[in-house]
Automatic annotation (TrEMBL):
Name of the protein: DUF1579 domain-containing protein
């Protein structure tokens, strides 16, 4: 396979400890209260490497009951882009609209339009690849003119994977 972007997310495969810092209520554009919590993540390739699944376990979030998150990332070779879908046990049966984007070097940018908390927003995911990856989510309420960061995740490798995740 050529270097067409299909391997851009290979850095995230494996077992991770995830330090989260997010606005308590990401659905409220007026929220300014930040909370922090830990999670674990297990990421493994699927479809012969042009996709992967990411399971995140959040045992003690500051804003509700424990939850499991699920991300499916698939590379579209015809478009040269990645599609990213998110779901969680907090919203059973719901799959968010796909984020679409690509990497330029070690930085990936992915966008989608959605309605969140009754507001039309453009959602942006930014990935910084490397040994200690960082993910950041921002919302724009004005069609991308300005952005409000509302969630950050810093990843560090775990030595082993406990059973159950």
């Amino acid at each position: 396979m050529t270097d067409d972007g299909a391997r851009a997310f290979d850095f995230i495969h494996g077992s991770w400890r995830v330090q989260n810092r997010k606005l308590r209520d990401t659905t409220d554009p007026r929220c300014e209260e930040w909370v922090e919590f830990d999670a674990t993540s297990e990421v493994f390739p699927v479809l012969r490497g042009v996709g992967h699944v990411d399971r995140m376990d959040v045992p003690d979030p500051p804003d509700g009951a424990p939850f499991e998150g699920f991300t499916l990332r698939l590379f579209d070779p015809a478009a040269g882009t990645w599609n990213i879908w998110w779901s969680s046990s907090r919203h059973p049966g719901h799959l968010d609209p796909p984020m679409v984007g690509s990497f330029a070097g070690d930085q990936g940018v992915f966008l989608a339009d959605d309605v969140i908390g009754g507001y039309e927003v453009t959602v942006r995911f930014e990935w910084l690849a490397g040994k200690t990856p960082r993910w950041q989510q921002s919302f724009s309420y004005d069609a991308g003119r300005t952005w409000k960061v509302n969630w950050l995740m810093d990843f560090s490798r775990r030595a082993s994977v406990p059973s159950g995740i």
